[in-house]
Amino acid sequence: MEHRLDLRLLNKRVDITVVGAGGTGSQVIAGLAQLHFALVSLGHQYGLHIVVVDDDTVSDANIGRQMFYPSDVGQAKAAVLVNRVNLTMGLAWEARIDRITNASNLRSDIVIGCVDNRKARKSILQAMGNNGGYWMDFGNRQHDGQVILGQVKAAWDTKKETRLPHVGDLFPELIDPSLDAEDDMPSCSLAEALEKQSLFVNRSVAVWGLNMLWELFRHGKLDYHGVFVNLQSGRASSLPVDPEAWARFGFPAKKARKQKAQQANPA
């Protein structure tokens, strides 16, 4: 089974919002600039337009693990990354020194979440509403991470089971703010940050996510829409576009509940 790109995205400017400009987001933004120029060179008339949303500033602990330099310390992350791309590549991408809330209005074709907590993920989902857009979510721990490309429900689509399930469909616990740790404070140094996350785990998941977008736009289809990466074991596994695979995660919810009820009460 495969997922096919909405052909409208090949004939218009593709609007992408990147939420989070830290460890993963800074890697993704640089890769999106490459993707933009590749698509334009292959004949896409408009390419990508990126809006980066982040209210954080660069700290000393970010140097070495994120795509920042000592001269960036104290400046807004989103502004630094967007200005760098615009100046070097002649683009007009936008930076918003802000954070996504439930009341935000995300109507982009693709929203890329590079956030590190469940509250932010839930805010992204709520801010997207029922626009039917793509939501690519990145997540990682110390040595492993994942990227899931899905679609939010569309108000006009009655065939909801045909959409790609997003991270909240497959992993409901990842959009439950009550499970966020209360003591997850920012690291004060690079050494402390590296105790929490491996040096290249963000780059690893970013490459997989960017490659999914490349495959989707280059060939117009995907037969997988997620990847799980473990740098410690050296393994990566994909999530196929397959209802049977989704059912193992409990999607769609009604079908999963029915299956559990049948197992609990066999005929």
Give an account of the 3D structure.
This protein is an alpha/beta fold and 267 residues long. The protein has helices at residues 23-41, 77-89, 118-128, 167-170, 190-196, 201-219, 243-247, 253-264; strands at residues 3-4, 14-19, 48-53, 94-96, 110-113, 134-140, 144-151, 221-222, 224-230, 235-240. The strands form two sheets. It has an eight-stranded mixed beta sheet, with helices on both faces. α1 packs parallel to α2 (77-89) and α1 runs parallel beside α6. The longest helix is centred in the first third of the chain and has 19 residues, at 23-41.
In short:
With 267 residues, this protein is an alpha/beta fold. Helices cover 34% and strands 19% of the residues. The strands form two sheets. The protein has an eight-stranded mixed sheet with strand order 4-3-2-5-6-7-9-10, with helices on both faces.
Mean pLDDT: 90
Share in helix: 25-40%
Per DSSP E runs of 2 or more residues, the count of β-strands stands at 10
Strand order of the largest sheet: 4-3-2-5-6-7-9-10
Tally the helices: 8
N-to-C series of helices and strands: EEHEHEEHEEHHHEEEHH
The CA-CA distance between the termini, in Å, is 32 Å
